[in-house]
Design brief:
single chain, 316 residues, alpha/beta, 2 domains, seven-stranded parallel β-sheet, binds flavin mononucleotide
Length: 316
């Protein structure tokens, strides 16, 4: 949200990953379509995706079908959906011959999405930046449990910011990983340089969960807005409206992303920030990640004779 624009999504596509543009970030349908057209052009025919996040507040979902139709008209063939009852979205997407990955925080929701036609699922643990849901299981527990039942491909997300973790997720049985936080320090992210330079200094512990009591937890950078929200919660605030401007994403967009003031706004970010050590182009980050993933795979391969021997010994 706010950051996943044409330049960033195209940079991911050009570096060999799949990025998702977020329609909510744009001021109206025309601006969204223009961004998509720009993204398609910058990506030079490589696949790009669109994220369709359904809000808990129904009035914020009025454009969901229009977002899908515009993306289809502009040639997008991959969607990530988030939120309850995605069946009607799947029908619309499939009717155009496109594919959909449904993202959820609960294993049972991932299984339900598979049942109603998702082509793939993305499962995030409680470490995920943004809205990780109310499930408190970490990605490696949820992921391993889900893989016992899922038949469609699964991308695992939440807390992944290092190549060794990518190899570990693949070893677990995942088909891909989903990453948000680690890429916040990409050069192609339009957020203010002061913010990105602040992020590369942050340890994994700099992330916290705000609004837990409201039932819609938000994993963010620990800052003054988080503190202000905690004070309101201490005085009984629970409903979204009771937090006023503090709980809106626009506060962080206008103060932090636009001006570099990281003390203000709920700024989506998870503990994977602990792996972000430099502001670099997307491609450099992905090369480092995949080089480390390859090292981990080589290490595991070297161990395969030993693990086979141990397995045989125990079988006897
Ligand atoms: C700045 C930021 C904004 C995000 N906005 C959205 C969003 O609008 N819709 C969505 O489905 N997920 C959103 N997410 C969640 C990511 O898509 C992804 O699930 C998450 O970042 C994975 O966990 P990680 O942050 O530990 O890598 C956001 C994450 C971040 C860091």
């Amino acid at each position: 949200m706010w950051l996943s624009d044409a330049r960033y999504v195209a940079a991911l596509a050009n570096a060999g990953a799949l990025g998702f543009l977020t329609p909510r970030s744009f001021d109206g349908l025309d601006a969204y379509r223009a961004a998509l057209q720009n993204c398609v052009r910058l990506a030079g025919g490589r696949p790009i995706g669109v994220n369709i996040t359904q809000s808990r507040r129904a009035k914020e979902n009025a454009s969901v079908h229009a977002w899908i139709d515009i993306a289809l008209e502009e040639g997008v063939r991959c969607f990530e959906t988030v939120g309850p009852s995605p069946d009607s979205l799947f029908t619309r997407i499939h009717a155009a011959g496109a594919k959909v990955i449904h993202k959820s925080a609960f294993v049972e929701h991932a299984l339900k999405a598979e049942q109603v036609g998702a082509d793939a699922v993305a499962l995030v643990g409680c470490e995920a930046g943004g809205h990780p849901g109310t499930n408190e299981l970490p990605s490696f527990v949820s992921g391993a449990l889900a893989l016992r039942h899922l038949k469609v491909p699964m991308a695992l997300g939440g807390g992944i910011g290092d190549g060794h973790q990518i190899a570990a997720a693949l070893a677990l049985g995942a088909d891909a990983v989903l990453m948000g936080t680690r890429l916040l320090v990409s050069e192609e992210i339009w957020a203010h340089d002061d913010y990105k330079r602040h992020l590369v200094r942050q340890p994994a512990e700099a992330s916290t969960v705000a609004l837990r009591a409201s039932g819609n937890p938000w994993r963010v950078l620990n800052n003054e807005t988080v503190h202000d929200i905690e004070q309101l919660e201490k005085h009984g605030a629970r409903q979204y409206a009771e937090f006023g401007a503090l709980a809106t994403g626009r506060l962080g967009r206008d103060h932090c992303y636009a001006r570099g003031d990281w003390s203000t706004g709920l700024l989506s970010m998870g503990p994977a920030i602990g792996f972000a050590d430099a502001v670099e182009p997307v491609e450099s980050i992905l090369i480092r990640l995949m080089t480390d993933a390859q090292k981990a795979v080589t290490r595991l391969s070297a161990m395969s004779a030993a693990t086979a021997e141990i397995a045989t010994t125990f079988r006897q």
